[in-house]
Structures are given as C-alpha cells and as structure tokens.
Amino acid sequence: MSAVRRISCVAVAAAAAATVLTALPAQAAADGCWGTGPTVTDTLGQQWATRYCNNYRAGDVYNYVDGRWQPVGRLYAGDNWFVCQSHGPDNPPIGDWVNDIWLYTEADEAWAAGGWGGFPATHVSGGVNYGPIPGLGWCPWEEDVLLSGSGE
Questions:
Q1: 82 and 52 in one domain?
Q2: Residue 35 lies in a domain
Q3: Which residues contact 85 (CB under 8 A, 6 or more apart)?
Q4: Are strands 109-110 and 40-41 parallel, antiparallel or unpaired?
Q5: CB contact at 8 A, 60 and 91
Q6: Would residue 127 count as lying in a domain?
C-alpha cells in the first residue's frame, strides 16, 4: 500500500472517529439534564444542589427587578448547572420552539440581582413546547405559581 493511500485511509478513519465522538455529546444533551453539579448559594443565602444541562445557545437570565421581569445577566452556551425549573412569562421564542418554563441559575455575566434568575427553557436541550426539561426538578415556588394561575 502506498504512503499516500495509507495517509488517506488514516485521514478517513480519523474523520469517522471524530464524527462519532462529536455526535455522542449532542445525543446525550438531547435527553435533558444529568449528573450532579456544585452546591451553590444564591444572593438570598439559600444553598442549592444543582444538575448539569446543555444550553445550546447563550441567552439572558431574567429576574424581577424594580417590579419588572428583565435581564439581569448573560449565560454562555455550553454545559451549565441549573438549580430547578418553574413556570413564568413566555420565553423568547427560538424558531417554532416556545415555552413558559425558566431554569433557575446564576449568569456568567451579572448586571443586576447578582445575576441570579431564570434562564429560558427554549435555549436548553431536551425540552418540548410548553414542557419541562427532563432530569431537572421543580423549584419550591412552583406550587405558588400554579396556584396563582400564571403557570397553567
């Protein structure tokens, strides 16, 4: 076998292996949240257990500041930790994907409220329209949201 042909075969094998290896994380991410993240403390002093989820796109983290639901920081795309999920205002839509579920986390860049707030489920792998992200628990305040009628 010539050197060119051997190099050609090695290049094809390497490309095939790279394709398989890069496809696996995307498939795993599509299943929702997984694993155990760090224990974190929010700006109210509450300690939380976390899980990892893949937010496939960067986006703003929102919270109520001065009585308005507004951006308080920015979360970069990638595998990030989240505390829980809860219903709230409609997310910014991504194509045909819509949701009203927000994942509680801390932003990578904080502008207000210490960067703590809700990250839109439309930016996280594994969800469906108006459905929860699999593998992440509900926030303790979810029952209050549902009782008030804003999460149904």
A1: yes
A2: no
A3: 101, 102, 103, 104, 121, 132, 133, 136, 137, 138, 139, 142
A4: unpaired
A5: no
A6: yes
Which helix (DSSP H) or strand (DSSP E) does residue 126 occupy? none
Q: Which residue has the tokens 């970069």?
A: 76
Judgement on whether residues 103 and 48 belong to the same structural domain of the protein = yes
The answer to whether 55 touches 123, Cβ cutoff 8 Å, is yes
Residue matched to tokens 């929010």: 42
Q: Does the pLDDT of residue 22 top 90, yes or no?
A: no
The predicted model scores a pTM of 0.77
Per-residue pLDDT tens for 32-57?
A: 999 999 999 999 999 999 999 999 99
Say if residue 6 is in the same domain as residue 45: no
Q: pLDDT tens for residues 65-82?
A: 999 999 999 999 999 999
Same domain membership, residue 93 and residue 55: yes
Q: Which domain covers residue 14, as residue numbers?
A: 1-30
DSSP state at residue 34: B
Euclidean distance between CA atoms 101 and 63, whole angstroms: 13
Residue 71 lies in a domain: yes
Q: Are both 49 and 114 inside the same structural domain?
A: yes
| Lookup result for tokens 């949240």 | 33
Tens-place pLDDT, residues 83-132? 999 999 999 999 999 999 999 999 999 999 999 999 999 999 999 999 99
3-class DSSP state of 49: coil
